[in-house]
Amino acid sequence: MNRLKLLQDLVDQNKYENFLEIGSHKGKTLLPLRCKFKTAVDPAFRISPSFFLKHLYQNPDNLRNRYFMMTSDQFFDQKKSYLKKKGNMHLIFIDGLHTFEASLNDVLNSLYWLDPKGAIVLHDCFPPSEAAATPATSLKEAAGMNIPDWSGTWCGDVWKTIAYLKKRYGEALNINVVNADMGLGIVRLNNNQNKIDKDLDRGLFSKINAMSYVDLQKNPQSLINLCEFHEVPGV
Ligand SMILES: C[S@@+](CC[C@H](N)C(=O)[O-])C[C@H]1O[C@@H](n2cnc3c(N)ncnc32)[C@H](O)[C@@H]1O
């Protein structure tokens, strides 16, 4: 299992048509994914012309893609009329800035535009090492921190977003993290009801922000609902 396969399975099983990706980089997930309407957001796309052309030939859906070169905060703030026109998003893949605060913001903003039967998938929810889980404000900052055992892989503390969502919205949201591809978080609405209070619980945020990778390793099942793909209900 990897992120592309998981996303494609969700599209195929649920006949999803409207996909949004936060953080598309080289287009390695965006372009091969087969879905009718795809929207991509990234302040620094790195899609090469040859990679684009190859995937346009293999997957003509890519002709309809829309690209927004901006941060996710700018996108959700400035592109409301685009989002309204596009209609509910069925599948939103969050793989932008790998901090607790940014990824939580991305989920809360995404929930607003999510179809009641849709799903949010977050990458990097179960980092493979303490080095990969280092909290930092960017990959560049993490890479410059002289972290022992640094391999270049950076998941940051996105896992805290899952821990926060689980504590704050345990009833309203259905949350799992598939133990594959550095942790693939799946967030769906329980009872298809998109009526959750999106105000930040600052006390809970601070409590979870103070947690460490050691806490995550001690009990990933209870903290982030870590499971195998076949254990995810309804997928
Ligand atoms: C790990 S890469 C994404 C990989 C891609 N999703 C894939 O599967 O191939 C992370 C991307 O997030 C982008 N990014 C960083 N900060 C962001 C932000 N605030 N909003 C949206 N994207 C951001 C970076 O420019 C980078 O291209």
- What name does CATH use for the topology? Rossmann fold
Question: How many domains, in number, for the residues?
Answer: 1
Largest sheet, strands/sense/barrel: 8 strands, mixed
Bound molecules: S-adenosylmethionine
Q: What is the CATH architecture descriptor?
A: 3-Layer(aba) Sandwich
The H-level CATH homologous superfamily, spelled out, is Vaccinia Virus protein VP39
Structural class: alpha/beta
| Multimerization state | single chain
Shape: globular
Q: Work out the helicity level.
A: 25-40%
- Write down the overall mean pLDDT: 96
CATH class label: Alpha Beta
Individual helix count = 10
What's the β-strand tally?
8
* N-to-C series of helices and strands: HEEHEHHEHEHHEEHHHE
Protein name: Class I SAM-dependent methyltransferase
Pfam families: Methyltransf_24
GO molecular function, one term: methyltransferase activity
Organism: Antarcticibacterium flavum
Question: What's the short story on this structure?
Answer:
With 235 residues, this protein is an alpha/beta fold. Helix content is 36%, strand content 18%. The chain has 10 helices and 8 strands.
List keywords for this structure.
8-stranded mixed sheet, 235 residues, globular, 10 helices, alpha/beta, Rossmann fold, 8 strands
Structure report:
The structure is a single chain. The protein has 235 residues and is of the alpha/beta class. It has one domain: 3-Layer(aba) Sandwich (Rossmann fold), CATH 3.40.50.150. It has helices at 3-14, 49-58, 72-78, 80-86, 100-113, 139-143, 159-168, 202-209, 213-218, 220-224; strands at residues 18-22, 37-41, 66-68, 89-94, 114-122, 173-178, 184-189, 226-227. An 8-stranded mixed sheet has the order 3-2-1-4-5-7-6-8, with helices on both faces. Helix 5 packs across helix 7 and helix 7 runs antiparallel to helix 8. The radius of gyration is 17 Å and the shape is globular. S-adenosylmethionine binds at residues 3, 22-26, 28-29, 41-44, 71-72, 95-97, 102.
